[in-house]
Amino acid sequence: MERRVGIELRAIGRKLAGYAAVFGQDTRIADFTETILPGAFTNTLREGRDILALADHDPRAVLARTRSGTLRLSEDSRGLAFELDVPDTGAGRDMLALAERGDIGGASFGFTIGKDGERWQGDRRQLSNIVLHEISVVQSWPAYEGTVVQARHRPFREPADAGLQRALNRWRA
Question: Where in the chain are the domains?
C-alpha cells in the first residue's frame, strides 16, 4: 500500500475537515513525479467501501470510518474532500489539540492502484483509479508543498475554497 502526506486540514468544533488529496498537483515521490487526475477516487466512493480515518496511519488509532458515518468523503473539482467527527479518545483529543494550535502537518491517504489506474511517461506517473483504504491526520511534514492546516474554534464562517465549502454544506445538510 502506498501513502501520500500533506493536504489541507481544518478543525471546526469537534470536527476535522479538509482535503486528503488534490487533483492536478505535481508531487515529487522518491525518484518520480506523481499527479492525481480528477475522478481518481470515483470508483472507491461508488463502491461504498469502509474507509478508515487514522491518526498517523496507525490502525490502532482509529478516528472515524465511513461505515459508521463518522467519516464523510466526497470528490469535487479540487480533490478528495473529507470531514470527520473527532472521537473523545486519546488520539482524537491529541489530534484536535494539535490542529487547534496549528501544529498538524496535514492529511494523508493510504491506497493501492485500481485496474488500469496508472500511466507512466518516463519518470512521471498519473493516477486515474485509486483504491482508497484510509485517510490519516498526520503530525509530520506534508509531501505536497504549500498545504495549509488551520484550526477553528468557532463555526466555519471565513471565506474558504469554494469546493471545500460546498462539501461542508452537503455534509451538514
Answer: 2-168
